[in-house]
Write a structure and sequence with these properties.
Largest sheet of chain A: 2 strands, antiparallel
Oligomer: heterodimer
Largest interface: A-B, 62 and 75 residues
Number of strands of chain A: 4
Structural class of chain B: alpha+beta
Radius of gyration of chain B: 33 Å
Number of strands of chain B: 22
Helix content of chain A: 55-70%
Shape of chain A: globular
Order of helices and strands of chain A: HHHHHHHEEHHHHHHHEEHHHHH
Strand order of the largest sheet of chain B: 10-22-21-20-11-18-19
Number of helices of chain A: 19
Amino acid sequence: MPYALFLLAMLVVLALCWRFLGAYMAAVYEGRTAWLAFLERPVYRLLRLDPEVEQSWQRYAGALVAYSAVAIAVVYGMQRLQGHLFLDPQHLGAVSPALAFNTAVSFVTNTNWQNYAGETTMSYLTQMGALAVQNFASASVGIAVAVALIRGFARRSSPTIGNFWVDLVRGVLYILLPISLVAAVVFVGQGALQTFAGPVSVHDALNGVTQVIPRGPVASQEVIKQLGTNGGGFFNANGADPFENPTGLTNFLSAALILSIPVSLTYTFGKMVGNLREGVAILAVMAVLFGGWLAIANTAELGGNPAVAAAGIAHQGGGNMEGKEVRFGVAQSTFYDVASTQTSTGSVDGANDSYTPMGGFALLTGMMLGEVSPGGVGSGLYTILLFAIVAVFIGGLMVGRTPEYLGKKIQAREVKLAALGVLVMPITVLVLSAIAVSLPAGRSAALNGGPHGFSEILYAFTSQANNNGSAFAGLSGNTPFYNILGGLAMLLGRFAIIVPTLALAGTLAAKPAVAASSGTFRTDTPLYAGLLLGVILIVGALTFFPAVSLGPIVEQLSHGRFFS
Amino acid sequence: MSHHAVLTPAAEAAPTPRGTRGVVSRRGLFDREIVVPALGAAVRKLDPRIQFRNPVMFVVLCGTVVTFVESVAHPGLFDWSVTLWLLLTVLFANFAEAVAEGRGKAQADALRQMRADTTARRLCEDGTEERVASADLRRGDRVVCEAGDVIPSDGEIEQGVASVDESAITGESAPVIRESGGDRSAVTGGTRVLSDRIVVRITAERGQTFLDRMIGLVEGATRQKTPNEIALSILLAALTIVFLPVVVALEPFARDAGTTVSIVVLVSLLVCLIPTTIGALLSAIGIAGMDRLVQRNVLAMSGRAVEAAGDVQTLLLDKTGTVTLGNRMASAFWPVGGHDERTLADGAQLASLADETPEGRSIVVLAKERFNLRERELGAGHVFVPFSAQTRMSGLDDGARRIRKGAADAVKQFVRAQRGEIPTELDPLVERIARAGATPLVVADGARVLGVIELKDVVKTGIRERFDEMRRMGIRTVMITGDNPLTAAAIAEEAGVDDFLAEATPEAKMALIRTEQEGGKLVAMTGDGTNDAPALAQADVGVAMNTGTTAAKEAGNMVDLDSNPTKLIDVVEIGKQLLITRGALTTFSIANDVAKYFAIIPALFVTAYPQLRTLNIMGLHSPTSAVLSAVIFNALIIVALIPLALRGVRFRPMSAGAILRRNLLIFGVGGIILPFLAIKLIDLFLTAVGWY
């Protein structure tokens, strides 16, 4: 498929998602649809839950954290015990404690950072019963937090922000499961694997060796990995593995699934706060960021490798093909990887480590902006809304009014919570990276020295603190040091943002609305979108400029010269 | 009956020109009397306990200590220069605050002189007088003041009427009448009785008088951080905290890159990145905002009220004194029954000769203007018939001739009683005048109806334009009047207000405020009467007129010393200006960081990675000159912006979008570009003088 057609088709598919999936999600979370009530009600009965009872933000957050703690314990336990459980045809045995911790945190926080090769580490039961379950649940948790925040804006003087359990169940049941079910069939039709039969042994007569080819229930996990912006592949090669991502169509679908919910949530947002233009303004900011970073990455990758060019090879075919799948080509691979890094998905269909410096820069800095373009399911929206509050505060001051956003006054408490939510990620990344480069346990794990090795470490913590899970590769992450530090980064990047976000939802919901007038600073205009864009870029640039200049920027300025 | 239905006392005080007189004098931004003490105060404010209250500047002070220790340990020109400029950065911030405070202190000193202890004549139970120091007066004491006495404390007049010189407080030189009972009974301590004798019941304890509060306010002694200031401080603290790991992490990052960075350079980078510009000027902006209000003779009881003023969405304005000049004026004579206009004018003038009300005077004046009818002396046979609520007419008896003017039905009754004819055109005429918003007064000479005088409310010139400005700022104006809806509608139309409340009672006013607030709007109003007090308290911004009652002054959160209700509009603008200045300087401060990065980052790592020289887009001379230039710029920009912080960013009534676009362009885009140029210039200078 020509790249232009690919982009056009993507635009059409996403536009349709935005309008219809976005409206549908609003209906789901406003309780206006109940076509799956026959499945939903038994769940509530089982949980002994009255779906009509709403929670204060403290209870909502408490339920969310408690649920996540239990989920981490369960996923940890299943990895440790998988050798004693069923569905382990390869007899893989227990996962080491540090890795099991890292992986449990990784999947419950919607990160899907993988310090392991799935096919040779996790049993089918762990893959399906622990990891894939969390792919659904963690995605639903993310959307629930975003919806709770939206309710904070939409409600007037309300003590509650919804019911966490209801939001969790409805997200899985009404949104994630139906879409996954349909899309998985398409993937299977395209040739993705879906089997419980164990690995096959193939005898290579020519070389006289026997090769073991792992198989498994792949397609069912593949769709939710993308749809829920999880990113954790069944196989180590992730989306580059033909069993996961067999054709150009599945590659297109994967990218579309990744972007569908984060993009559509802006419609849900606009719809629920009663002004679609508010959602469009947020979407526009996301689109400009995404487009800009896609342009950087595409230009860099299609332009070829500067080191190869420096070696005197003038023509590099279709650009920097190193680490790219021939099935997809440079442009579409780049699109996939940009979509994946900017949605906190982290799945790959190529090797990010082999990107050109500027291509790698685009992937890395896309995450450093806080995963808001469009970001992970739910997390993208609630994070950009935190930025929006900071932008509204500064912009609102400049028009001479106590700043207000969607009718809610932005005062000390809101600023405090939003600033906290915005700053947790950069502080986590910088502090943990600094620790890693300072200690032998951290530095020796990087494959390369110099700025590229530095980039590998920086990338690892940026990815984990942003709950992305994208790996730059080149870093041997499966050490106790990285498993534990990484787990910490993921926990902070998830819950140190979610809890302030829910507190914000609670404070906002409790406020009455202020009437808008022409003296009110409007937040549904291009001017505001520009301001928000500026705030996101400036916060990102100011916090990461020194670090990035020591990594990809030095590399770029060295024209791809390798450092030892 | 609401006193708003009749002429209000406020109307007599208004209008006063905008501007400043009296003790609250305007001073230049950098008056010697203010600057010299401020220099000393800037050094005294280096006290860490004071600095701790401002987290941004506290970090700078800590950084200064660190670089100082480094300079002592490894003396060098660069380290010492950085230490000096970091210290100057803190001093400049202190200086800005001290200048802002100094302006208030100068005013407070002038006010304090008025409070100079006087003796008061206290009335004892038995009616005798005793001399006591004003300081010993208690609430509830009764004191006597006669011509020449200074009123010892705030109080209410219990007996008598006096003319009082209040220029000490208001700057208004014309004396005002104060009398017992009604809405003009309040007197302020420190003002002087010019004539007559009054008995005043003291209503304020020592230290809590109006004058004391005024001194506290202008001095900033009672200053607390306002809600918005707190919110901004939190954002600034957050921006400071995030730059700590950014800078601290650079040390291991640098080691990883095979180089070392000196702690002095790291501190320099930190200070350049944290929002020192706004951090240094934040409190000066707040103090100066209150000061600007005082300059306009408005006393805000809290900074919170000033901020709320900027948020106001609905302004309730009394018609009389704010929208209109206060008095209805005769504007036309409409003869009936075949009489000519001159006859009517002559009769009207006769009927009004002894009428001292402003309306009456205006009739005499109009007759003189139109027909050159000279004012006649009241003769011996002339008997003035004053207005009464029963007759609803006034006029003159000249022997047997009885001339009357008054409400249409009253005069008609008067004419019919003398078997006179009522011309058929009278009723339609009266109705037409009333419908146009004017007041018809019918004039009769005995049994003959001469015609109708049209009395019109005169809308203040320029008021329509001000309401248009308000509308552009998103503020709805509502005119409050005791007039009937017809009259009110006509005046509202002429003045260009958005809405009106006719036949207003205090209850109706209160209900209107509540409705607006329930709709999420912030309401501002002015008032002066005791029956305004509940509404003043309910409104988000209540400006009490200084001429008003003590109850009104206590209920409101601002007092206008000029008693000029139009000033509410200025108050709103000052509130907005305060927030805009904060927002603009915050934006500027953050935008500045971009250039500082481009100065310092290449300087930091150019030894490890010579390629990073490409980032030195300003072409700065050397790493040391680059860092020092950024630090110097960071310090000097504070001084450069002190005038802006004190004066406030200019406010123009525009829509929010237009204001934002303008300020983003000036302070956002300008804030990015300016430091590139300035740092380059400083670097050129440092290089030219050969220091680096």
